[in-house]
Each structure stands twice: as C-alpha cells, then as structure tokens.
Amino acid sequence: MLTGSKGFSKLDLSHAYAQLNVDKESQEYLTINTHKGLYSYTKLPYGVKSTPKIFQSKMDQILQGIEKCVCKQDDILIGGNDWRENLKILGESKCEFLKPEVVYLGLKINEKGLHPVEEKVDAVRKAPVPSNVSELRSFLGMVQYYHSFLPNLATTLAPLHKLLKKDVQWKSTSECQKAYDVCKQSLTSDTLLVHYDLNRKLRLSCDASSYGLDAVLSHVMDDGQERPIAYASRTLSQTEKNYAQIERCHIKVGSESAIYQVSAIDDDFPITAKDIGKATKVDSVLCKVYYYVMSGWPENCQDENLRPYHNRKLELSCEQDCVLWGSRVVIPPVCREKMHAQ
C-alpha cells in the first residue's frame, strides 16, 4: 500500500466512535439507566464489544479505493510522492503533513520501511531483569509488541515461558538471562522491515526448533538480497514437542487457507474484472450502487431497484470499479449470460 511513498501524512480522528450514528433499531439495545431516567445512545459508544469491528468496517468502506491510504481504528496514514498526492481537504489539527517519516501505531514509517520507535526500544533495553511472574509478563508484553521485528522469537523466549507455567518454582537461570540479553540486542531502532511491494518476489522461510516454529516473509530485492517484511513464530504444544525433528517440519506455522487460495487462482476466466467494472459503470442500477457505496447511502431509499442493496449496505464494498457483496462480485446483468454460458 505504501510502496514508493516518500512523504507521509497522519490523521487522528477526534471522538472517532461518536462520529457514527446508531440506527433506531439498535438504540433500544443501548439503553442506560440514569438518575434522570432511561436514555439511549444515538452515537456509537465506547465499551461495546462490537464497536471496534463496526467502526473499522465503516472506515474501510469510506476509504475504499483511495491509493496509499491505510487505516487502523481512528488513525489514518496517507503516503505519497508529493503534496498533490497527499493533500486534498485536510484539517491541520492533530495531523502531520508531508513528513519524511511519521510515528504510526507505535511504528516509525519512512520510505525505507518500518522501524521500532526509539522510546519503546529504550523501554525494553532499560527494563530490569524480572524478579517475579508479574514483572516477567510485563517484559514479555513489551517484547511481543514488536514481535514482527524479532526473528526466532518463540525459540528465544522458551526459557522465559517455562517460568509462566503452573506449579513451576521461580528460578532465573543463565538461559533466562541469555533470553533477556538476546531480546534487548535484537530490538534496536535500526531494525528495518521493508514495505510490502506487489511487484517484487516473495520468499517464505520456515524453521523448527525443539521449542517453537519460526518464519520470515521476505522480498527478493533487485540485487538478490532478501529483506524481511515480517517475522512470525509460535511455541510448540507439549504434544508437538514430542515429535521427531523431521515431523516438526510438517507442522503449520499459521493458517493454511491462504496457501489454498493462492494455489486456486486461475487466469482462464470467461470475463475479467475490467469487463465487469466497465459494465458496472454503464448499468443504471449498479452505477448508483457504486456511487452510494463510495460516497455514503441516504438514510431512506425510495428506489425499489436500490432497496435490496440498501438493505445490505454494510456488506457492500468496491474494488477495481466492481461492486462486491462480501467476497462475491456483483455481476451486471449484461455480463451474466456470458458467465452462465461457461
């Protein structure tokens, strides 16, 4: 998303959740009892379990199709090569414009890639050696925040994780001290993760130790060198630790569905996304649906043709000029006969 960007702008939304209205059907479930009687929230409140997911979904829908723009909750990050690409109509308050680097979600981001923030790195470096379980959990929490930057993390932290097990007496060993030192030495403000680039080759490398599974996803650069995009790891279960080394190599690091999805891609389609996008733009109904998905739906829909889409407005999105219902493409009527013929 941010590949090729040299200037970055960061937006922090004010009272983010309160900017979303709650429909009347949902307001009755958000009723609170006060000394002045019963009141219902008309804005999306904090504290409701589904609020972050609803807000993130809405932000993704609003920002859909904007290049070099990423959003996580109330923080929006915009990349670009110059001010024309960055600046539209943006308020100055709580924003940073055209910086060579910005701090976003605890990460320092510039044209080279992602770095840990110096202050957080210092907090890990200066953290005292834990003397009890509570202090150890706090230390591990700081380290896990930057797990994507640390190779072989599950294996490195294995001696420390042993101290968290039930019925294990606290005893800091030389192995524990080594784990502390490796974490502090590995995490520096110079640590770099490159931006993901759709046009570069990927290489996934995995390894298994007697304690955990480790993986690194890298880009193969023009000079043949590998530059890490992210590291991942997990600790082996007690059963998995009993496997022979050759069997551990077959344990999955994460979800295998992504591999199936990649292997299922085919390029022999009767119609392309470009064809569907063109047909969507000239279709009398879908062109309006596309407009409303991108710009926002009216509260009430009088058009009978649009009502089915209005009822599912939170499930619709747009990509490559096509309208999507969840993960499914809405096929314009003019293209359906050709699709069914295949």
What does this molecule look like?
By secondary structure, this protein is of the alpha+beta class. The protein folds into three domains: 7-111, Alpha-Beta Plaits (2-Layer Sandwich), CATH 3.30.70.270; 114-256, Ubiquitin-like (UB roll) (Roll), CATH 3.10.20.370; 273-340, no CATH class. The protein has 15 helices and 15 strands. The strands form five sheets. It has a four-stranded antiparallel beta sheet. It has a three-stranded antiparallel beta sheet with strand order 7-8-9. A three-stranded antiparallel beta sheet has the order 10-11-12. It is globular and about 70 Å long. InterPro entries: DNA/RNA_pol_sf, Retrovirus_Pol_polyprotein, Rev_trsase/Diguanyl_cyclase, RT_dom, RT_RNaseH_2. Pfam families: RT_RNaseH_2 (PF17919), RVT_1 (PF00078). GO terms for molecular function: catalytic activity.
Labels describing this entry:
Ubiquitin-like (UB roll), 15 helices, globular, 15 strands, 342 residues, four-stranded antiparallel beta sheet, alpha+beta, Alpha-Beta Plaits, three-stranded antiparallel beta sheet, 3 domains, 23% strand
Task: Write a compact overview of the structure shown.
By secondary structure, this protein is an alpha+beta fold. Helix content is 32%, strand content 23%.
